[in-house]
Write a structure and sequence with these properties.
Elements (H helix, E strand, L loop, with lengths): L1 H25 L2 E2 L2 E2 L17 H4 L29 E9 L8 E13 L2 E12 L2 E4 L5 E5 L2 E12 L4 E13 L5 E2 L2 E2 L3 E16 L6 E14 L16 E11 L4 E12 L9 E2 L2 E2 L6 H10 L3 H4 L3 E11 L3 E9 L8 E11 L2 E10 L11 E9 L66
Antiparallel strand pairs: 1-2, 3-4, 3-22, 4-5, 5-8, 6-7, 8-9, 9-12, 10-11, 12-13, 13-14, 14-15, 15-18, 16-17, 18-19, 19-20, 20-21, 21-22
């Protein structure tokens, strides 16, 4: 009963937070029109989590238990991954309702160097399909296949039993319209370098009781790096530097059942782009460095504007018998910042070392989402050294075994009798002799009569 109360309390908290954000949005209208505060960046695909498990819970992932796809939302979680090594593949169709050749695919793997150290690597590839270019008169000129990708390397380390940190390095490549002309400049591929800094905390309470409670939290500042340009212009675009904070609670009811509730909040750390001041004909906020943009993202606009640049997501999942899981979640973005709002549902099936996650997005507004009514999936493989079994469960935590413990009985074969050794023979005592009769002082023997 206590577990259900805690889960219900967290659900109520999330509902109140969503209502508060909605109220803030409603107060930002002028004459019935919503003020547009949408922040745009280069390579926005970096903010798409390819993990279908996260995709079934409103895209939460910062404080969820670690698995092979954990490095996308919070690389520091990988220090707590239960298996020694593994890899995962994910696939997400994009704009499936319109075209069939746009998709996001990813491949990643991890290896536990030591008990407290894990290295990970990943590749995210975003294909934008086949594009037909035309001139100003609408005449077809050429065709092109835009594509983007990012390569990551991450290192995570435990600092004690409950805390971990991680750092990631990332190379980003974006080829959208090479060879075309924009404003008299030839378009070329954009390139950038970036990194992540993250931490994660999780602790289990009541390990000696029938029900275990796990609390987790984490933070990830991702895509801290250079700006990107597609032409020879000195003016460059920001990449999506992002601050993510997550909370989580999981109840392990017994060795077969667990319930978890998680929530994330995200904020783009780039200028708010509502300042129209210019310098030498260029908007001042565009002249800021990426590091300056991190700080001005909190100070470059009124508080009523900044609060509407936060995204909120929450989700819940249930696992049974370590092999089957269901989940759902909700993602909320204020209308002024883009208005993405949708429900998500997911399913997990695991057998031996293989796990398969599915997710499905259900829109809740009239605004179209590229993933509307789209099925995504992730395929995971986890292994252990020495032929040991794969992770104890999909959540990366050991369930409590509440089976009554029987008194230990000694069923071992009794030890063999010790070999008999030959007895030690000791000489028999000499027979007693009759003492000689006393003799006189002159030592003359007395002859018996």
């Amino acid at each position: 009963m206590l577990v259900l109360k805690r889960v219900f309390t967290l659900f109520v908290f999330c509902a109140i937070a969503v209502s508060a954000l909605q109220a803030q949005v409603n107060n930002s209208t002028t004459g019935g029109q919503i003020i547009n505060q949408t922040i745009t960046t280069a390579v926005p695909f970096l903010r798409i989590n390819p993990d279908a498990r996260a995709g079934g819970m409103g895209d939460v992932g910062i404080a969820t238990p670690a698995d092979a796809n954990g490095l996308y939302a919070n690389p520091s979680k990988m220090a707590f991954v239960p298996d020694d090594y593994g890899f995962a593949m994910s696939f997400s169709p994009w704009l499936k309702a319109l075209v069939n050749d746009i998709y996001l695919a990813s491949l990643n793997g991890y290896y536990k160097v030591k008990k407290e150290q894990v290295i990970s690597a990943s590749l995210r590839y975003f294909s934008l399909g086949n594009i037909q270019f035309t001139d100003q008169n609408g005449t077809n000129t050429s065709q092109f296949m835009p594509r983007e990708f990012a390569v990551d390397v991450s290192y995570a380390r435990k600092l004690g039993d409950y805390f971990s940190i991680a750092a990631s390095l990332r190379y980003i490549y974006s080829n959208l319209a090479t060879g075309q002309q924009v404003g008299g400049s030839e378009v070329r591929p954009g390139q950038a370098g970036a990194g992540d800094i993250a931490w994660y905390f999780h602790k289990i309470y009541g390990e000696d009781k029938p029900v275990q409670h796990e609390f987790s939290c984490g933070m990830n500042i991702s895509n801290i790096g250079s700006k990107m340009s597609y032409t020879s212009s000195v003016t460059k675009d920001f990449i999506p530097t992002n601050l993510g904070i997550g909370l989580g609670y999981t109840a392990y009811l017994d060795k077969h059942n667990s319930v978890g509730v998680y929530s994330d909040i995200n904020k783009l750390l780039v200028p708010n782009q509502i300042d129209t001041a210019t310098s030498n004909g260029v908007l001042k906020w565009r002249q800021e460095s990426s590091i300056q943009g991190i700080f001005t993202s909190f100070s470059g606009a009124p508080a009523s504007v900044i609060i509407k640049t936060f995204d909120l997501a929450w989700g819940a999942e249930y696992f049974y018998d370590k092999r089957f899981g269901v989940r759902f979640g909700y993602f909320y973005e204020p209308y002024a910042a883009g208005g993405r709002q949708f429900l998500e549902a997911g399913l997990t099936i695991k057998y031996s070392v293989v796990g398969l996650h599915f997710s499905y997005l259900i829109p809740t507004t009239i605004l179209r989402n590229p993933l509307d009514n789209t099925l995504r999936f992730s395929l995971l493989f986890n292994f252990n050294k020495g032929g040991k079994k794969s992770g104890e469960n999909n959540s990366g935590i050991s369930f409590v075994d509440d089976t009554p413990k029987k008194a230990k009985t000694d069923t071992k074969t009794p030890p063999l009798a010790q070999p008999q050794t030959a007895p030690v023979l000791t000489p028999a005592p000499a027979p007693a002799t009759t003492p000689a009769p006393a003799t006189p002082d002159n030592n003359t023997p007395v002859t018996p009569k």
